[in-house]
Amino acid sequence: MATFNLVLDTRVVKKNNQYNLSIRANIGTKQLYIHISKMTKEQYHQIFVKKTMDKQSIEFRKKCSDLVTKSENIYNEMHPFDPKRFRKLVLGKDETAPENSLLLHNLFNRFTDSQTSLKKRTIDHFNYSKSVFHKYKPDLNVLDLDSKFISQFVKYRLDSGVSLSAVNSSLRDLRRIINYFSNEECIIPKNYKYPFGKGGFSIQNFFPRKLVMSNEEIKSVIELDDFDSKEQEYARDIWVMLYRCNGINFVDLFRMRWDNIKGDYLIFFRKKTETTRKNNVKEIVVPITEDLKKLIGKIGVRNSPYILGKLQDGYSESSFENKNHKWKKILNKELSVISEKLNLSVPLRLKNARDSYASTLRRAKVSKDDIGDMLGHANSIVTEHYLASIDMETTFDINKHLL
Q1: Domain assignment of residue 157, yes or no
Q2: What is the DSSP-derived secondary structure letter of residue 3?
Q3: Separation between Cα atoms, residue 380 and residue 26, nearest integer Å
Q4: Integer angstrom CA distances of residue 55 from 36, 40, 58, 59
Q5: Same domain, 219 and 339
Q6: CA-based, 20 to 30 A from 133: which of 84, 179, 274, 397?
Q7: Mean pLDDT confidence for 250-263
Q8: 261-262 β-sheet, strand order
């Protein structure tokens, strides 16, 4: 049993004959005073007994009444009861107060601050999702999130021209936040109706179809020998190396070391999978063909432990991300000039070396299982979706039978 009342605590007199105006909490056999202001007996009598009707007194009474209600709500949600934290929560001195902790942007902040194993890129992604929801509805409380709200959010984003894959990405971050604070750091009330899954909103698996270069276009990039600058040639060489290294992402080439070379192979793990919880993470095994050996000899920096020579041992995650972003921007700028020079049907970018690799193998009738193995996919389902997304050109072969 607990009761909460507003009282003038006359046990101790303060300066100028003032006393503490307090919330007195009677919790079982214990009594707790939370001081919220100071006033004289005369002031207390005027404001709370006679209830003077001037604007300032009315507003002050309302503020005090709200604090009493707040005390009751906090007590009902606090199990077990912690007097020290209870006092802080009532006075608003604890950033994890219920009315603040359940604000969605605070949950995002609390999650990224507590997860020390998160990569900078992942934290940036969560921060972006946080800003997306905050922009849609500032001071959004997680308890306001139901399947109807999420459906309205999705429609708004799609109508704004945002791709479905980008919308789904934000929803997955939201789902992770709700799951974490429901099941791990349990501050979301148990009676909260989970908005996802059965009976709720389902995040659709969406694999956008991609346009890919033809074999002739890929060959024209590889054989290009007319460059405007050394920087342009270097960018092309980097693209070709990504292509010849099983279509890896630039981030993996950027951090690739000379000691990843094991005899006639490059063997390494993708950065994307190094912190995954799955137990079937695969090594990428790249056979070092004569073409690849020449390319490594051309762009490799021998006096560095890293093949591209852009990093030094002991780099921080932040430093790595900054340098990686900087070099991607530089290289893609040069590749865009090559796109125009060769009049390619698809803009040449570092990221489409992976699509080009997979599509080359598919056109050569290499099995999906072998393609998936070379790409480092954990299962054939991922490969099925990946290959389906790049196989646009077959639509012409199919529809050529039309009358």
Answers
A1: yes
A2: E
A3: 63
A4: 20, 19, 5, 6
A5: yes
A6: 274
A7: 94
A8: 261-262, 265-268, 284-287
Instruction: Please report the pLDDT score of residue 96 as a whole number.
Output: 46
Number of domains in the chain: 3
**Contact, 212 vs 359, CB < 8 A?**
yes
Cβ atoms 64, 70 nearer than 8 A? no
Domain boundary residue, one of 64, 94, 124: 94
What distances in angstroms separate CA 172 from CA 74, 119, 178, 262, 334, one per listed residue? 30, 17, 10, 38, 34
Give the range of the structural domain holding residue 113, as residue numbers without chain letter. 102-183
Tell me the Ramachandran region of residue 51: left when phi exceeds 0, alpha when psi lies from -120 to 50, beta otherwise: left
Q: Where are the alpha helices (DSSP H) in 14-119?
A: 41-44, 55-77, 83-91, 98-101, 104-114
Among candidate residues 318, 333, 355, the one where a domain is terminated: 355
CB neighbours of residue 64 within 10 Å = 16
- What are the φ/ψ torsions at residue 176 (nearest 5 degrees)? -65, -40
Q: How much is the pTM?
A: 0.61
| Whole-number pLDDT of residue 4 | 92
Are residues 221 and 328 located together in one domain of the fold? yes
Is the peptide bond prior to 195 cis by the omega test (within 30 degrees of 0)? no
pLDDT digits (tens, 9 = 90+) for 44-96: 999 999 999 988 889 889 999 989 998 888 888 777 777 887 887 888 754 44
> Residue 89, CB half-sphere, CA atoms under 13 Å: how many?
23
Q: Assess contact for 340 and 232: CB atoms under 8 A.
A: no
Q: What is the H or E stretch that residue 372 is in?
A: helix 368-375
Q: Are 371 and 362 in contact (CB under 8 A)?
A: yes
Per the listing, tokens 């991922």 go with 382
Asked if residue 195 lies in contact with residue 149, where contact means CB atoms within 8 angstroms, the answer is yes
As a residue count, the chain comes to 403
* Distance in angstroms (rounded) separating the CA atoms of residues 255 and 265: 17
Backbone angle region of 266, left / alpha / beta, with phi > 0 → left and psi within -120 to 50 → alpha: beta
The single residue listed with the structure tokens 């049907």 is 345
